[in-house]
Amino acid sequence: MSGARSGPGGDSATRAALLDAAAQLMLEEGYAAVTTRKVAARANANPALVYYYFGTVDELFLAVFRRGAEANLRRLQDVRQAAHPLRAMWELSSEPHNSALTVEFIALANHRPAVRTELSLYFTRFRRLQEDILATALADRSPVGTPSPAALTILISGMSRILTMDDALGLADGHQEVRELIDNCLTRFEGTAPNSPGTSASPTSGKADQDRTG
């Protein structure tokens, strides 16, 4: 990253704490609340360390996004081995934490070209991987009229964001019905819902994945 410094031990506890603090502020107060002083205070660190590790606030945002994006891509790769890959994909894409942080980054991208470029690159990779998983999972068992994998990826991501934005506004009308509709569609393709989430490799352990995006 141009202008950013990794410092001694680029993945040090201090650097990780700053990333965690920035992600938490974005979720709790919105991206506009992310300032060097607030991030440092939340991480119990000197404000100068934000510049030391990241150079600029833009680079801090990018570091938060990249960390979460790479974690999400690893989780999506794990979906391939899930017993119910379609359900596992939906669970990953619709996690409230994931969706809420993604909405913040999309809003930020309207004002930060570097963030917009990064989001575009990431979503291209994520959707192509989704399409590949969907094509494999639906091969030889999707009825006539089933949307293409490319269309389904957009429907999945769009639905998860709508539910998240509604939740933020306190809107819940129709949510239960939509979730039941999705569950019925998943059961139609993959059988009865499993007793536990399909993403068996849980990436939620540890602070490093607190800011995952998707």
Task: Write up what this structure looks like.
It is elongated, with a radius of gyration of 19 Å. Mean pLDDT is 84; it is low at 6-10 and 196-210. α1 (13-29) packs across α4, α4 runs parallel beside α7 (113-138) and α6 crosses α8. It contains 9 helices and no strands. It has helices at residues 13-29, 36-43, 48-54, 57-79, 85-93, 96-109, 113-138, 149-169, 175-190. It is mainly alpha-helical.
**String of helices and strands:** HHHHHHHHH
Low-confidence stretches: 6-10, 196-210
Number of strands: 0
- Percent in strands: under 5%
Give average pLDDT, whole number: 84
| Spatial separation of the terminal alpha carbons | 22 Å
Helix content: 55-70%
The Rg value, from CA coordinates, equals 19 Å
Query: Main beta sheet, described?
Result: none
Shape: elongated
| Total helical segments | 9
Task: Record keyword descriptors for this entry.
mainly alpha; elongated; 9 helices; about 0% strand; about 210 residues; single chain
Topology:
Elements: H1 13-29, H2 36-43, H3 48-54, H4 57-79, H5 85-93, H6 96-109, H7 113-138, H8 149-169, H9 175-190
Helix pairs in contact: 1-2, 1-4, 3-4, 4-5, 4-7, 6-7, 6-8, 7-8
Give a quick precis of the structure.
66% of the residues lie in helices and 0% in strands. It contains nine helices and no strands.
